[in-house]
Amino acid sequence: MSRLDPEKLTVEYREGVTPKEPIIPRRYTLTHSDITAELFLTIGLNYAYDKINEMRDEVIGEWIKIEEEYFFNVFLYIDGQFGTIQSEIRNAIFRRELPLALEAIRYGDKYFFSAHPELDNAPIIVYFNSTTPYFNRIENWGNFSDYNL
Q1: H or E segment to which residue 1 belongs
Q2: Residue 33: how many other CB atoms lie within 10 Å
Q3: Cα–Cα distance measured from residue 7 to residue 145, given in angstroms and rounded to the nearest whole number
Q4: Chain centroid to CA 24: how far?
Q5: What is the pLDDT of residues 73-117, one digit of tens each?
Q6: Across the strands, what pairs with 62?
Q7: Residue 118 DSSP SS3
Q8: How many domains is the chain built from?
Q9: pLDDT band for position 149 (50/70/90)?
Q10: Any idea where the Staygreen protein domain is (predicted)?
Q11: Which of 72, 78, 100, 148 has its CA 20 to 30 A from that of 109?
Q12: Which residues form the domain of 89?
């Protein structure tokens, strides 16, 4: 069941990126507003560091190619400013909200996926980055066909 409200998603393409090209490099920065529940997806050759705030609750991702296979890597900053308890809370929030984030990326870049339908089946590899070994994990989260509205 979809949780994404497309009317609350704003997409920005940065210089060097179009709705259909390139595949590599193509990097995504997804941020949000806690107040309005709006999502902001920036697609560019580089991550939109200017959109990242001190909370570090963004979702960033990029396409990579290993030999002949494409992968989508997602990077999440689990460690908070207040130690392990904060990391536990952030980990739970990221896990709960990641399906919505992946839906937003898939929907927000729908013309790209139409131009490259094979990428709907590329594995999504999520890096939960933490200094705490329990939260520092790499997981396969399926592929974008699982998050297509």
Answers
A1: none
A2: 10
A3: 21
A4: 16
A5: 999 999 866 667 888 999 999 999 999 999 999 999 999 999 999
A6: 27, 73
A7: helix
A8: 1
A9: confident
A10: 4-147
A11: 78
A12: 6-147
The reply to whether 141 falls in a domain is: yes
pLDDT one-digit tens code per residue, 128-137: 999 889 999 9
Q: Which two tokens stand for residue 52?
A: 């990242």
Q: What is the spatial order of strands in the sheet that 69-77 belongs to?
A: 9-13, 39-44, 27-32, 59-66, 69-77, 123-129, 137-143
Residue 25: cis peptide before it, omega within 30 degrees of 0: yes
Cβ atoms of 32 and 40 within 8 Å: the answer is yes
Q: pTM for this structure?
A: 0.94
Look at residue 42 and tell me if it is in a domain: yes
Residue reference for tokens 């002949």:
68
Tell me if 1 is assigned to some domain: no
Q: Are 41 and 104 in contact (CB under 8 A)?
A: yes
